[in-house]
Amino acid sequence: MMAGGGILTSRWSKGEWCVRICIAIAATGLGYTAITYALAYSIRGIDPAYAHALAPGDGRITALLSEQLSGPEASPADRVQSDSLARQALHQDPTAIAAVATLGINAQIRNNTALARHIFAYGNRLSRRDLRTRLWWIEDAVSRGDVKGALRQYDIALRTSRLAPDLLFPVLAKALDDPAIRLALVSRLKTQPTWSGPFIVYLADNAVDTISVASLFKDIAKADVLLPAASRAVLIRRLGEQGKFDEAWNLYSAITPGVDRRRSRDPNFTATPAEPSIFDWVSIENDGVVATFQHDEGGGVFEFSVPPGIGGPVLRQAQLLPPGEYFLEGRATGIDLPGSSQPYWALICANTAEIGRVPIGVRSEGKFSGKFQVSKSCPVQYLSLIIRPSDKNEEIIGRIYQVKLNPIKQ
User: Fold this and answer.
1) Which of 21, 44, 242, 259 is 20 to 30 A removed from 76 (C-alpha atoms)?
2) pLDDT tens per residue across span 396-409
3) Chain centroid offset of residue 311 CA
């Protein structure tokens, strides 16, 4: 600053210099501490030991280290150290639930169930979101034969932990062979917990004991609990693939009132579920084939369009017809082909042996009919609409308005 031809400069006193230096040092220290804690928190789940070294006064990080040292493979010395760290963590942060779970698990490992129950009761008051705490309460309820109590703990865990489904769904699925557990589970599912849908999907797709799952699904249907159509269809298909057709039919009939295994179903194509089971009409589209269900004023209709030179099944429905004679009849339009090229209905055994055929033409106002004789050696059949490859360079188009298969002797 210029004044009177000279330069005026302000000078700080020694005291002012000391204050400013101390402020700078404090700011640097605070910055270092903030960075250190930020780093500790960023790695606490990956390396809790290093995180604890960076932030030894943080109770939550100390608790995580105690949890790591109390794992399934922990030695007695590890457990002593983890106990010490857990107590330290609770001194630093009385709400550190991971430390409480560590003390409880270590007490249980030492067969001190009374102490473990006391510790986990305290953990319950702190938080319902800790998965280790929930797992201990599940095991405790199971050991006491308390099915409802165990399922209550399952419910809490599955609603509060993102990790719980991967861990608990397989365990719960294996327990379904116990009727008491299935009964209690249906009661729990009636409350519509958030995990019920994913659990049902898991059972249909992955459960090994498909018969027990089928029993559960039937109980669910009786209790008016929502059972997704896709899961029903998947389980029925899996039962069929395993050769358990009677169990598949029992499930299907339980959720589809009025069906009769002596007759085909949905003769007028009015049901057409979005997720059909093997006992519903299933359209087959491949190699350019278009096969769809439509609705008009008179009801439903099945339409198909097949490119030149292409053949094979375009529609199928699994049957469990008892031995006897059966009559097939129906109505179609748009199929104007010579006898050797006409599509036909075939009843085929599950072992691929063909029982018979009923051709479809446009004569008699599009009506078709024929008979099949089912023997004892063929307990599972498939009623299929088969298209023969056309010699002409044009697609095959047709509409089926009705088809029904009934026993001749009622």
Assistant:
1) 44
2) 888 999 999 999 98
3) 36
Output the pTM of the full model: 0.82
Residues 6 or more apart whose CB falls under 8 angstroms from that of 252 comprise: 232, 236, 259, 277, 279
Q: How far apart are CA 248 and CA 46, in angstroms?
A: 47
pLDDT tens-digit series, residues 157-180: 999 999 999 999 999 999 999 999
CA distances from 105 to 69, 125, 304, 372, 403 (A): 11, 17, 64, 67, 65
Query: Residue 264's closest CA among 347, 344, 351?
Result: 347
- Quick check: 250 and 205 in contact, CB under 8 A? no
In sequence order, what are the beta bridge partners of 306?
396
Task: Tell me if 238 sits within 8 A of 210, measured CB to CB.
Answer: yes
The three-point CA angle 167-169-171 to 5° equals 80
Which residue, among 320, 243, 307, 242, has the nearest Cα to 279 in the 3D structure?
A: 320
Q: Please state, in angstroms and as integers, the Cα–Cα distance from residue 278 to each residue in 203, 221, 323, 383, following that order.
A: 18, 19, 20, 11
Q: How far apart are CA 329 and CA 323, in angstroms?
A: 19
Tens digit of pLDDT for each residue in 316-338? 999 999 999 999 999 998 777 76
| Dist CA 382 CA 353 (whole Å) | 10
Going by C-alpha positions, the residue among 400, 387, 406, 405 that lies closest to residue 272 is: 400
Distance CA 254, CA 246 (A): 12
Q: How far apart are CA 275 and CA 279, in angstroms?
A: 11
> What does the block give as tokens for 368?
């078709």
Neighbours of 292 (CB within 10 A): 12
Residue-wise over 363-397: b if at least 16 C-beta within 10 A, else e?
Answer: eeebebebebebeeebbbbbbbbbbbebeeeebbe
Q: Which residues 6+ apart lie within 8 Å of 201 measured at CB?
A: 228, 230, 231
Mean pLDDT, the chain, integer: 86
